């Protein structure tokens, strides 16, 4: 089911992949729900490359987006001095990528947050004049002070909250640890901002904390990555802004209905990256629960849904869950439906049918395990538990090879010497560059789609 009432909006579709057959008494149903949005007239912003933002905006097109760029200006950004210059250049590149009419602001972050442009607690509308003024203001950025990321996010939230647009997005850059703020304070800010705007987070260099940066992106449904060499910031900021400019629909939720006696065990996004959404469920009525998915452009994502159903005898069948894409009504009215798919359960005494595993479910179960064992292996290595680190990272190599996750396999090869990928036989490298280890940890949740 799709709602195409808005001619310029993407059309959503839902496909469900599962083995619906259960043995007598079987209760656990697993399915991969593939959600695709297409036809919104975007390509993730790729059409902006090599053109001015004004040329990239079709005449008469209404821009329903607001973006705040948060730049770390703490004292460590001056070591080396080129880091601050690279950050200024990257922010200027992001400003140049803004589509005409997009509301935007730039914030500098230290142990407090300050408005760089336009100031006055407001946003500017992107055009040739405001872009030039913003880039001029960036020249005044200098390094000094501490790091309290929660203050940056609070200011971004206030600025974005004043924009009457559906797409609200942040881009955050840091080069250090959040040392001037308690972890619980940052957590409270993230909880307050969740659902209000999305945010991509980047760590530059190697002196920042992976868990902090990935935690920000996870809480705010954005992406996280490392830019080990500051000279790569401009290209990365451009890609992030291009992606933000490609978003067309905000606040989309995956709504699950389950029948009496059934319960949702977990809901995880499994492509393009692993993200557990189970704890983010919001009750939406009797037997309905909503899971946030953030903003969408032209793209496809996969979700692993596991439902526990009541026991039943051979020959019985039931609807285990209905998965719908919806846009909730902030006023509490009926949501806007976008598409839906059905998850079924059929009980059989055919052993071959009931024990077969859906290729999609098997693939993404492996991808989720891959992300988990990478984190466990790196943690064990940090604590000197070399045997456990070898075993976990060996299993990661095995899973990456089996699933065709070549990018992750290449990152693992910088941390371990691979003796036999098929069996997961590896040796820990005696010396590993800090940037390589941090890159593997930061990108551990990235997945590949199931092979056709």
UniProtKB/TrEMBL annotation:
Matching PROSITE patterns: VWFA
Record-annotated VWFA domain positions: 66-249
Top-level lineage group: Bacteria
InterPro entries listed in its UniProt record: VWA_3_C (IPR041176), VWF_A (IPR002035), vWFA_dom_sf (IPR036465)
One protein family per Pfam: VWA_3_C
Cited Gene3D superfamilies: 1.20.120.1690, 2.60.40.3670, von Willebrand factor, type A domain
Protein name: VWA domain-containing protein
Species of the source: Streptomyces spongiicola
Lineage of origin: Bacteria, Bacillati, Actinomycetota, Actinomycetes, Kitasatosporales
